[in-house]
């Protein structure tokens, strides 16, 4: 029963969680995961410098943070060669997306994304009463031309592209992304989610231009920086757009320890470079394991490999269930035809050993091994 | 210039921060604060158990948290003798208030609060286009009868009461608060902000009844638990109300280290009891210092003492500025007649030594010492 005092919009919404945590699955299914390969986390964790900074920051946890985070925003700005005013920091990209949709999307406003792309973006759009228009992938890629065409057609306030893409691991080159930015229709803002960009070639990143009001880009400390549980990420945009987050955001919402960790993490580029190499090796190993089992790994510019299981969604869901039952946590795309795949995050060597051992068993469970 | 693509509501909003951080004041005013007595923080910090749990949780920061936080919600529920389903956890009371207003307040809906009470609540109400109706304090107390009368008159969706009250430090007894709950008009939800309740006598807390749909209560780890920078707090309400936060909240928004710290903090009741005693001694000392300088401390059920400076708001503002210039960070109420006061948080003994030394100097700066 919904509370009749709540807004008509809220009463119309389901009570959902975009993702079920592995700990929750363990409790519900009575399994223990020996390999945590489903949430695109980074098991190598953050830089030792970031860990030390976070441990030290525990001592100051009694203090509120600083709402505008000048040190962190300054360091982010210096890294990208932009002004701090072009940077807004929030509680993960999820938190920033939640604020963004409130800034741009009134009830009934159109928003465009790809069918099968990031569910939490869709969740936040629904939460403000936006009307989602979904464009199919072109093969395993989001389709920039179709996205902007649909945005123009429906008069969208926002059009979303993730580059690299989750859940498929595919990436467009910078020219294609820049062409999309250049063709965003008047009245629409392009949301460029670059959560995985550190794993991707530099040639996939268009130059940052904070004089351009057509795009906002999001980066995170959850992926390559190994701090998913810290909830800290940032947006890069024209200063007037970045600054507008201050109108409605939870100003003191970013944990102080997370701020300290993020600042220190930015100062350890060798660690980041090493992580990116480790992840590349892990992707190669996942691809080999998939191939050894007759499955087809898709090329990936992220810290996961999306594996084509060669049949339909029911087959992939059955394989995912078999892997879950055998203690391997993976996830998969939610929408056909992407759902012929499962998505396997790079784990530790030991976790990938578990994958190598259990994937053939899971396939055999299906009578397909 | 506002972005014409943003919603009409957002375009109408100013870009503001409800509170200026002391670090920001230091940078802007060129001062260094020797006594940080303005943000109602707890300089004694969290329980050593909570510190240890947070330091340990740094090692797991690469993992996302669990959206529904079963361990923490279970511990909170056990503490209050309620069901975990009656508990919702969020990024500080500020974060929870931000979600609450989105659940209940559509553009143009009425909300009632006291004139001079918590500015961040007002900020969030404005952020969803709610229309604030403000009731004057009765003396230095929020006025429950006037609040519910106004709520009935304007058909308010929410009516806010903080007990104990910030910024005045005053507290109502449980019977008065229960009487307010019992008289909340149909169609309205009472928001009972109990951020400071651990410092107040038990006789100020009405029994928790999660079958009652008329009220939601908020508690925090920012004040008596000494974790302001962690951003973690909880709401207690009928399970259908608490559960409705899941419709729009940032499910993975609470930092994992904060969750670990909160859970451990709940397990150290002796520390909490000790903190409450230390704070009571600190309040007594602030009251004595105020009296020694010819000022009038108001009774306080919080970790701050609101001090009547005996004249008007201009006088109190001048005293606050003089204290700031002399390295003492304090804040003050924003609205007459409350703004005849300054608000001094309990600090360490050393910080209160600084206060004792500099308050007479600051008064002399005004030519009033």
TrEMBL record, chains A, B:
It holds the Pfam family Aminotran_1_2. SUPFAM superfamilies: PLP-dependent transferases. It catalyses: L-histidinol phosphate + 2-oxoglutarate = 3-(imidazol-4-yl)-2-oxopropyl phosphate + L-glutamate. Pathway: Amino-acid biosynthesis; L-histidine biosynthesis; L-histidine from 5-phospho-alpha-D-ribose 1-diphosphate: step 7/9. Residues 37-359 form the Aminotransferase class I/classII large domain. GO terms for molecular function: histidinol-phosphate transaminase activity; pyridoxal phosphate binding. InterPro entries: Aminotrans_II_pyridoxalP_BS (IPR001917), Aminotransferase_I/II_large (IPR004839), HistidinolP_aminotransfase (IPR050106), PyrdxlP-dep_Trfase (IPR015424), PyrdxlP-dep_Trfase_major (IPR015421), PyrdxlP-dep_Trfase_small (IPR015422). Keywords: Amino-acid biosynthesis, Aminotransferase, Histidine biosynthesis, Pyridoxal phosphate, Transferase. It comes from the Bacteria. Its EC number is 2.6.1.9. One of its GO terms (biological process) is L-histidine biosynthetic process. The keyword Transferase applies. It is an enzyme of class 2 (transferase). Belongs to the class-II pyridoxal-phosphate-dependent aminotransferase family. Histidinol-phosphate aminotransferase subfamily. This is histidinol-phosphate transaminase. It comes from Celeribacter indicus.
């Amino acid at each position: 029963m919904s509370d009749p005092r709540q807004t008509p919009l809220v009463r119309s919404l389901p009570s959902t969680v975009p993702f079920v945590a592995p700990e929750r699955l363990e409790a519900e299914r009575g399994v223990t995961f020996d390999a945590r390969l489903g949430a695109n986390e980074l098991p190598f964790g953050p830089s030792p410098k970031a860990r030390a900074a976070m441990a030290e920051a525990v001592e100051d946890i009694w203090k509120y943070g600083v709402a505008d985070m000048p040190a962190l925003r300054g360091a982010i700005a210096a890294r990208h060669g932009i002004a701090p005013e072009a940077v807004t920091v929030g509680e993960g990209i999820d938190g920033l997306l939640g604020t963004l949709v409130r800034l741009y999307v009134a009830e009934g406003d159109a928003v465009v994304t790809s069918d099968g792309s990031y569910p939490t973006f869709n969740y936040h759009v629904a939460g403000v009463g936006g009307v989602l228009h979904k464009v199919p992938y072109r093969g395993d890629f989001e389709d920039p031309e179709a996205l902007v065409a649909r945005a123009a057609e429906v008069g969208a306030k926002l059009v979303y592209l993730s580059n690299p893409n989750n859940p498929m691991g595919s990436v467009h080159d910078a020219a294609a992304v820049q062409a999309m930015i250049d063709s965003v229709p008047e009245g629409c803002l392009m949301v460029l989610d670059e959560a995985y960009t550190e794993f991707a070639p530099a040639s996939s990143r268009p130059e940052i231009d904070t004089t351009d009001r057509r795009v906002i880009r999001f980066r995170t400390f959850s992926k390559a920086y190994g701090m998913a549980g810290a909830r800290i990420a940032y947006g890069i945009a024209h200063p007037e757009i970045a600054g507008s987050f201050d109108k409605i955001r939870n100003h003191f919402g970013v944990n102080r320890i997370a701020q300290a960790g993020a600042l220190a993490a930015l100062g350890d580029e060798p660690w980041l470079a090493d992580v990116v190499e480790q992840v590349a090796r892990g992707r190669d190993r996942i691809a080999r394991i998939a191939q050894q089992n007759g499955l087809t790994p898709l090329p990936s510019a992220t810290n996961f490999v999306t594996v084509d299981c060669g049949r339909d969604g029911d087959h992939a869901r059955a394989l995912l269930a078999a892997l879950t039952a055998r203690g391997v946590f993976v996830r998969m795309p939610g929408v056909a035809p992407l759902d012929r795949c499962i998505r396997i995050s790079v784990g530790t060597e030991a976790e990938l050993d578990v994958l190598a051992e259990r994937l053939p068993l899971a396939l055999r469970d299906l009578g397909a091994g």
